[in-house]
């Protein structure tokens, strides 16, 4: 990557785009709604169960002008979800300002392990044990989505729920490879602790991206 391109990436004017697609949101509070997804490359959180490990190495994904991405979004949707990888590795200020100027609602899905940037209509925080969110990020969360892979994750979920605001929606989501084992446990847990809701990866059941 030449210096000019690197500078543009550092400013968020270009971003390492892995893929972009128009689909149905499959998880969390906005399940079932149409949205344009922008998946950025780059992540060092390292979840062993990650289903998009090909996103981890940002160098594999070409720097793409944020203006080009915004133009693609406007052809399809009025809501965009920026995910990864870990999108907050990059400055989100430029692209979210451009999106909102085009009347596009901006959503993010992030581990919160990097500094907050961007202008968001919906902020989904999904903390990971490997690399916890920064303290500044918790207050931004509209939605806390905790992935349940084993029994100890319920305790971790409660620890993280104690750090977000009172208006933040709380979700427990079974890790896909463990869904048969963990889903019944999540159902039982939510019935005993009704502050939580259940999130399922419905896009996988629907066989869509």
How would you describe the overall organization of this protein?
By secondary structure, the protein is α/β, with parallel strands linked by helices. It has one domain (3-206): TIM Barrel. The chain is built from 7 helices and 9 strands. It is globular.
List keywords for this structure.
209 residues, alpha/beta, TIM Barrel, nine-stranded mixed beta sheet, 29% helix, globular, rSAM, magnesium, 4Fe-4S
Order of helices and strands: HEEEHEHEEHEHEHEH
Quickly count the helices: 7
Q: CATH topology, anyone?
A: TIM Barrel
Average pLDDT for all residues: 96
Overall SS class: alpha/beta
Total number of domains: 1
Termini separation comes to 30 Å
| CATH-assigned homologous superfamily | Aldolase class I
State the CATH class.
Answer: Alpha Beta
Strand order of the largest sheet: 3-1-2-4-5-6-7-8-9
Q: pLDDT below 50 for ≥5 consecutive residues: which ranges?
A: none
Proportion of residues in helical segments:
25-40%
- State the shape: globular
Function: Catalyzes the complex heterocyclic radical-mediated conversion of 6-carboxy-5,6,7,8-tetrahydropterin (CPH4) to 7-carboxy-7-deazaguanine (CDG), a step common to the biosynthetic pathways of all 7-deazapurine-containing compounds.
Domain Radical SAM core: 30-209
Family: Belongs to the radical SAM superfamily. 7-carboxy-7-deazaguanine synthase family.
Pfam families: Radical_SAM
Which helices and strands appear, and what pairs or packs with what?
Layout: H1 3-11, E1 14-24, E2 34-40, E3 63-65, H2 66-74, E4 79-83, H3 93-101, E5 105-110, E6 122-125, H4 135-138, E7 143-148, H5 152-161, E8 169-174, H6 179-192, E9 196-198, H7 202-206
Parallel strand pairs: 2-4, 4-5, 5-6, 6-7, 7-8, 8-9
Antiparallel strand pairs: 1-2, 1-3
Helix pairs in contact: 2-3
């Amino acid at each position: 990557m030449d210096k000019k391109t690197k500078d543009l990436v550092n400013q968020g004017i270009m971003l390492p785009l892995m893929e972009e697609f128009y689909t149905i949101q499959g998880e969390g509070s906005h399940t079932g709604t149409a949205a344009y997804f922008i998946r950025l490359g780059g992540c060092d959180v390292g979840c062993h169960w990650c289903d998009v490990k090909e996103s981890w190495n940002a160098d594999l994904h070409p720097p793409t002008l944020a203006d080009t991405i915004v133009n693609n979004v406007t052809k399809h949707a009025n809501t965009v979800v920026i995910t990864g990888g870990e999108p907050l590795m990059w400055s989100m200020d430029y692209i979210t300002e451009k999106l909102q100027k085009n009347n596009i609602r901006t959503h993010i899905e992030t581990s919160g392990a990097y500094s907050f940037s961007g202008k968001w209509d919906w902020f989904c925080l999904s903390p990971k044990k490997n690399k916890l969110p920064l303290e500044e990020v918790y207050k931004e969360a509209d939605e806390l989505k905790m992935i349940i892979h084993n029994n100890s994750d319920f305790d971790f979920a409660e620890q993280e729920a104690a750090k977000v605001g009172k208006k933040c929606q709380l979700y427990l989501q079974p890790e896909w490879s463990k869904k048969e084992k963990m889903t019944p446990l999540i159902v039982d847990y939510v019935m005993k602790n009704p502050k939580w809701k259940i999130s399922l990866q419905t896009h996988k059941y629907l066989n869509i991206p």
